[in-house]
Amino acid sequence: MISWRETYNIGVDEVDQQHQELVVKLNEFLDACIQQKGKDKIMETLAFLRDYTVEHFRSEEEIMLKYNYPEYAEHKKDHDDFVASVLELEASIQNQGATVVTTLKLNRTLTDWLLSHISKSDMKIGQFLRINNIV
User: Fold this and answer.
1) Is residue 6 one of the residues assigned to a domain?
2) Cα-based distances in Å from 56 to 22, 69, 79, 97, 104
3) Direct distance between the N- and C-terminal alpha carbons of the chain, in angstroms, rounded to an integer
4) 2-59: per-residue pLDDT in tens?
5) Residue 2: inside a domain, yes or no?
6) Which one of 37, 48, 49, 79 has the fewest CB atoms closer than 10 angstroms to its CB?
7) How far is CA 70 from its chain centroid?
8) Superkingdom of the source (predicted)?
């Protein structure tokens, strides 16, 4: 399970709240996996991710564009790559059904995204906004 830490906050309330929502959903999925119910929870988690990515990525990208964030293109590519991973997983599950492998892959994808993207890429947005006295 992943505990939310204040160090994950980037300093933009809307984005930080969305990240916390992702942690809650990730923990629900991890809990289901621990209880051997990951396959049952996988489609719900993927549906959440489809909705989450549309809203959350739009929020981040609007902020980056509004304040001329210099690493916008690279960050947007990260978002696009994540969406592609989620869609690929969803297609795999629709074609082959939920398996232990797809459940583990979603688990790893979410965990990697949370720990890597938020703590590195998103944190750079927060630093940029603070340096430029925007937040």
Assistant:
1) no
2) 10, 17, 10, 28, 24
3) 30
4) 888 888 899 999 999 999 998 898 888 888 878 887 777 888 888 888 888 888 999 9
5) no
6) 37
7) 21
8) Bacteria
Domain harbouring 86, CATH code: 1.20.120.50
Long-range contacts of 125-131 (CB under 8 A, 24+ apart): 125/10, 125/12, 125/15, 125/60, 125/63, 125/64, 125/69, 125/75, 126/9, 126/10, 126/11, 126/12, 128/67, 128/69, 128/70, 129/10, 129/11, 129/12, 129/63, 129/67, 130/11
Domain tally for the chain?
1
Query: How much is the pTM?
Result: 0.85
Of 9, 41, 39, give the one whose Cα is nearest residue 23: 9
**60 domain residue, yes or no:** yes
Geometric angle at alpha carbon 133, from 127 and 134, rounded to 5°: 80
